[in-house]
């Protein structure tokens, strides 16, 4: 147990002068060894700083710990297996190396593999066994080297203090000699100084006279410049007044134009709403007509089941193609198209001598369900399909929709051939009617 005087001396050494040793280690595998080394050095009446709570494992080194590090005299590095890859140890070693103070590396293996190996390049390494690490038993040679490093540091400091003290004495003696010499020659120097001051005063008087004449000239020139600036300011004020008047007139004209544009916009919106209403009404009527046609063809479909009428339908389709219209880019069949294909499929089942040729034609635009129309003509959509290869791709999708539907109704795929003409063969001026699939029958020779 240390008495009160020893405790006070330990506090003054560790806080005013700094600790003797700073132990850098990894908490993962060297905590016990570091504590044992600190305890062993403490028995030698040496102070050690060992961080146990200043920084959390895996985090950056705090500034308070780095300040403690820079105030220590010797750095002890415990190069345990986990410490070789420790980035916080690398930070501590790099900072302490800048102070030029002694560093004692302690190796339990090959320290050349450590991330901080470049910082201790050229330093002598004290080798300890892995058993001493696991058993937390620092060797006596290690303790002896640590003490010798601290002793060397203290001797170096004493030499530096002696050099500074001697330099101070020499400098003081030189200043004293210079002061005495200065006092002996002070009288002669004062006389010479008086002569020089008289000459200086005369020169300054002549310079002052020249400066006064230059100031008078500058004052006259400044007066002329002021009058010229006043005239320019008057002209600029008049120009600003004219510009403000012109701007006010322009703002009035802009306000009138803005009000006219707002009125025209309101009229345009009202016209657009009215046109959309008319188009919506037309589409509702077209949808009702489509449903009515579907109902009529569904009622007439039973008539085609009779052999004579079915044969008549096949011969008619062989002469004039059956047309299926599509009104959206979903490639879906409406009730009328499905009813026509249902009747055709039923006839084809009874007449195997016919094959099906499906040709698809596209318009330059689609009708998108639920979208506002962008043309005055019924059926002219806002979204344009364009020309070229894309229209052929859309035609293939339309033909495939019809072919797949007939397949679900029992028509063999081998009896069907499909082709897309894109928008290369329009028949109608109304784009809505050009978006169609034509189904033609061909009688196969026996």
Automatic annotation (TrEMBL):
Domain OmpA-like: 328-431
Organism superkingdom: Bacteria
Family annotation (InterPro entries): OmpA-like, OmpA-like_sf, TIR_dom, Toll_tir_struct_dom_sf
Listed transmembrane segments: 162-182
Domain TIR: 21-110
UniProt keyword annotations, A-Z: Membrane, Transmembrane, Transmembrane helix
Coiled coil location: none
Protein name: TIR domain-containing protein
Organism name: Hymenobacter defluvii
Taxon lineage: Bacteria, Pseudomonadati, Bacteroidota, Cytophagia, Cytophagales
